[in-house]
Amino acid sequence: MTGLALITGASSGIGAATAEALVEAGWRVIATGRRVDSLAALRDALGEPLIPLRLDVADERSVATLVERLPGDARLIDALVNNAGHDVGGRMRFDQGTLEDWGSIIATNLTGLVRVCHAIVPGMVARKRGHVVNIGSVVGRQGYAGGALYAASKFAVRGFTESLRKDFKGTGVRVSEVAPGLTRTEFAETRWRGDAQRAAAFYDGAKGALDARDIARAVAWVLAQPDHVTISELVLEPSGDP
Ligand code: NDP
Ligand code: 8X3
């Protein structure tokens, strides 16, 4: 299937790579995020099939107005890739982190994803056609020290996705989870509030890390399946020792 896809968190990393992969596969892509300059650069690189739109998934109003802010010919969304996420303040023992940071991880990675689904999925159900791909994580299967709220958010994404898939079975709306292992993106730099040196050292110590394009290829493949096939979960791990 190809058609119109909306990607959250398309301004960098996995989301940007997915926008590129989907445009290459023939999709029109609504690329969303808060950094509009990065979205504009993506539009320059990918051309007319790429529609940039500011969206803060943690902001109720931003999501509530999402559909009305789309161009009239770009409202019938066939595929939704819920990718926006962060771990700002993470890699920190639970008691040493702030409730503000822990809350923001849940507000973005879980509540934001739920909110965007609630805005987009009813249209898919009405049209009996659609595919939701939620970006989970290997950390949604096994937690780690310092990752309490990040893991909580990704375990929740997994449970939400599995239940949603069952909610909509037989309606024409498919629901999948793509769960990456460690992937070299801006994620670590964002987590450490712009500390590029610390982020580079983190990824340099993980030579086998996946590339954002590896995940993008997987999302494109999940979306390319014929209507009668649902990829429920796809977990990607580095082959070597990251
Ligand atoms: P990046 O930091 O490169 O990208 C994160 C994206 O999320 C950015 O485009 C950012 O856009 C967006 N984002 C963050 N907060 C918000 C918000 N409130 N509203 C809208 N967009 C937001 O990291 P990745 O590409 O690695 O992360 C993408 C997804 O992949 C995340 O869900 C992450 O948990 C998941 N993941 C990452 C792994 C990794 O090792 N990197 C492994 C497993 C899963 P902007 O700042 O412009 O809003
Ligand atoms: C996993 C991201 O950096 O915590 O989703 O390993 S990281």
Short description:
The protein has helices at residues 13-24, 36-46, 60-64, 66-69, 99-127, 148-167, 187-191, 196-204, 212-224, and strands spanning 4-7, 28-33, 50-54, 79-82, 130-135, 173-180, 183-184, 210-211, 233-236.
Task: Outline the fold blueprint.
Layout: E1 4-7, H1 13-24, E2 28-33, H2 36-46, E3 50-54, H3 60-64, H4 66-69, E4 79-82, H5 99-127, E5 130-135, H6 148-167, E6 173-180, E7 183-184, H7 187-191, H8 196-204, E8 210-211, H9 212-224, E9 233-236
Parallel strand pairs: 1-2, 1-4, 2-3, 4-5, 5-6, 6-9, 7-8
Helix pairs in contact: 1-9, 5-6
The protein binds NADPH dihydro-nicotinamide-adenine-dinucleotide phosphate (NDP) and 2-hydroxyethylsulfonic acid.
